[in-house]
Amino acid sequence: LVTSILTDSDSFQDVVVKIERSTYHKPFLGGFKNRITGVEFHNAASQTIPKKRPDKGIQLFCRETQTVFEKNKPQQTKNTTSTQMTKVGLYVSNMTDKLLSPGKYLTAEEYHKRRLDAVIVIQTYFRRWHAINVVQNLREEKRLRLAWEAQEELRKKKEKEEKLRREHEQRLNAKTQEDFELLYHALELWRQEEADHINKTLTGPERQATFCGLLEREAQLIASIGRHKLNADEENQQKAVLRFLNKCARPKRWKTYDGKITEMDTPYTLRARDLFEIYKSILMNDIPKEERIDVLLTLRSTVK
Predict the structure, then answer these.
(1) Alpha helix (H) residue ranges in the chain
(2) 193 in any annotated domain
(3) Residue 171 CB: number of other CB atoms within 10 A?
(4) How far apart are CA 296 and CA 304, in angstroms?
(5) CB neighbourhood size of 187 (10 A)
(6) Which is it for the CA torsion 273, 275, 276, 282, positive or negative?
(7) Which of 89, 142, 244, 281 would be a feasible disulfide site paired with 295, CB 3.0-4.6 Å?
(8) Which residues belong to any copy of the IQ motif and ubiquitin-like domain (predicted)?
(9) Same domain for 226 and 188?
(10) What's the domain range around 266?
């Protein structure tokens, strides 16, 4: 079938449309039939051939699975027993027989009441056991909480004492810039307290004289801190030199693929190690005179 399609405002294009004729009878899916002409008008139809489900090799629909067959068959136990009763001409002893008497008849209400009472008893003991466990757990948690609070209080007290001891140690043996800042801060606080005390208690010439004495003591303390700072700077410089030489003398280290650490000495690290040993030897002052001379000769040859 050839049909024309409007592509632009004034142009048409012929398109070939293939029509597949169905080879099977279309099912009636609803509609109506014209009684005069006999034409059937279907509500829906499709030209697409339905796909067939692949054969799985298993029979899914079978009449035997939908049919119930019933039969009656008696069964007999393998152990056949018999009883013998007393009769004319036969005596059977009844010495081993048991006499059974019926008990009290238990009604349904009595049975259910007895079960309810038993359930109440079980629940009572279970709730008692559960309450005991809850109380014991609460006591244990309270004991652990009190022990933890006591331990935390002791830890905080120790930390506070350690902090005070460390600050006192830093003030006595100041090494870093922070330590000296703490010293200067403490000195400033002391000066302010002394000045406030002088302003509250003294007046006139006596106040001026006391301020002069306070100024002299402050200058002495600042000078003492300055001398201590010079000594600390010299010691820190010495430690920095030792750290630098030790770092240069360390062998090269790297981590291999299996996680192990490999070390390797290079000519530079060996040379730095020799210089480091010479430097440490020169720093020692408590060695004999002959060894000191040998160290100085080694230094001389190294410098050359």
Answers:
(1) 108-172, 177-201, 204-249, 267-283, 289-303
(2) yes
(3) 15
(4) 12
(5) 15
(6) positive
(7) 281
(8) 234-304
(9) yes
(10) 250-255+262-303
